[in-house]
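A sample follows:
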Amino acid sequence: MTERPWKSCIRIFFEPFMRCFFPEEARLIDFSRGYEFLDKELEKIRPENLTGEREADLLVKVWLYSGRERWLLIHIEVQGYRDGKFEIRMYIYNYRIYDRHGIEVVSLALLTDTDRNYRPGEYKREFGNFRLSFKFPVAKLVDYQGREEELLRDDNVFSLLILAFLGAVEKGEAIDKKIFQKVSLIKELYRRGYDREKILQLYKFIDWIFVLPKEATERFHEEIRRYEEEKKMPYITTAERIGIKKGIEIGIQQGIQQGIQQGIQQGIQQGIQQGSLLGVREMLQETLRIKFGDVPEDIMSGIEEIDETNRIKELLKIAMTTDSLEEFAINLKDNSTRIIN
């Protein structure tokens, strides 16, 4: 499991994330005024010795009911071991943002490890009468074990993602039970009355978080197909198609270890082997929807105008690796310029 799925979830469902994990802070935020992810500002303050380590940090601009602007630094940690640099890393980012921009920053942390005794939350230094104390709120997913019934009653989308996490990390459970748990989560998406877009987004995240053994995956997909037929609600048009995208993403992640280009190409080839070349354009559009939510019509129509499979595959690589819809749009615009020229 990596930080990336959680980062994508938070981008798409930011308000539910805050209300689920940090309710005290959420009560102070006027979400009706919107919010803004400050990717460029975060990149500028990243310490050189930490570059590449904290791709899962998010910096978000919000407005409070008092009318003041406030920045939130959200840190996602998935490693399953104690990190002696965790607190100081949180402190360094906080003061660097304030030093560079003069904006008060609230640091928050989401921990997805399973060590109940690992409780970071404060960085402090002392010398004589000198005291420095930096405390930050921490949400830990493993703390929700034993609260499954409560989570099912909670209509926050993150309640289902927490359940997916708990099912994934549960030890010693039979495969049949894990398949049942994951199928039940997908059925819950329909029961809650979510629209097609939200179901697709949450399906992808649940599938990414709650990974089943290979032999159980086919049974899971078959259960979903039968359920769709019974309900006559084909929001998840086929589990296989989303599985193709997941295969591409896995290929990209492996590429980080083996060489980016080779990994991306392997992932795309795996997807194409399971689907037709004609589906690559639709795969690209669905990937953008899942990662960024609402996608401007000019971007979607621009993709429709491309009739070169290789170019669509190039854009698919970009879509899977970028965290910025603006960056993708620039690359798409480059394609239009080439057509005109």
